[in-house]
Amino acid sequence: MNLIDAFESGAIAIPWAVSIDGKYFPSSTGRDAPMHCITDCNDKYCQNPGGTLLGHQCTVGFTYYHGKVGEAIIILFGTLGSKGWESVDTGIRQKNKDDLKGRSVSARDFSSWLEKLKSLNKLFVDYKNNILSEALHPLHETPKIAEEIRNLADSLVNLKPGKTFDERFSAALPAERGIYKGAQLLVDSFDMLSIFFNPESAKLGEKRIAEPYKLIHKLVLLLSNSNNGLTRRRPKIYGESYKKYLALESFRIIPLALLNNAIKYSMTEEVIIDVRDVDNGTLFSLVSTGPYISEEECGRIFERGFRGKYAQSIDRDGMGIGLYVAREAAIANRTTIKVVSEDLGYSLKSIPMARNTFSFVVRDVV
């Protein structure tokens, strides 16, 4: 359960009409938003980014407040702030006189209500984490077992002839390659779950020398035969990089999660990975053709548990884990993942297509 679920249930009193992540909720106490805001306002100035807890005035003089609870954006609009009635346009004031009763809300009033919602939201999050932890508790030894299997598979591959891992991997039997892939991806999955349940764990572990290009190349080797049930994806690497970095163990999770996401949601066969050295680091860009990501979704796509509008129709089993974990690993490694979705002007299976690019720059973690 989240705040929207709680509000929709009717079990939570809403003192003033608000919007949560763009969804409108009327007041449960009769103090609804002015009719001007609901029916006559065209610019929806209060919904634009940049609002604060202190409050701002819209174009007709109403005061609106922005607050955040967890990842949810809550907007209280159509109120009489500290300037009261006199701040509102005369004609609109007269027309909405009855609607404005009980709409005198100060920044302190709004902040106080938000603090209560934050406490409630924390209960939701803690409860969800406890349920998941209890469900996974019987598997607490499984990551160690997966690690042992991966090490054994690694030994099998290293016994094959060849000077490089690529050569030895290619010389392995198909069954041996399959065991290695499965074991490595299983270990990576447990690492991602660890960060999902405890984001702070992304900052733990010793810093090690990482060669990003080799890491990407190995990931592509492991994931190149992945099949999501629609079409076989073929990740291709462009560019080159010879730089080495001092990075945390969680660094590997960033390209792994992004590549997994691109493969999963690409609606065409090709997934492009561009790796290039820049002045202050190495730039990674993962490009695929998939569902259009709106501006609002771009701002929320890395939230825990969030899934885009068209994600469900492509992958029903997704849980909104991958990109959240990638963001936490990126924060730990002092970088930022950027996303750009360029509308291609056509649809596939009733889904608007876009050229989606996820990128980040790796630098030394010091």
From TrEMBL:
Keywords per UniProt: Kinase, Phosphoprotein, Transferase, Two-component regulatory system
Q: What is its EC number?
A: 2.7.13.3
Family matches, as Gene3D superfamilies? Histidine kinase-like ATPase, C-terminal domain (3.30.565.10)
One Pfam family it belongs to:
HATPase_c
Q: Which residues form the Histidine kinase/HSP90-like ATPase domain?
A: 246-366
What does the record give as the reaction this protein catalyses? ATP + protein L-histidine = ADP + protein N-phospho-L-histidine
SUPFAM superfamilies, sorted:
ATPase domain of HSP90 chaperone/DNA topoisomerase II/histidine kinase
Question: Can you say what this protein is called?
Answer: histidine kinase
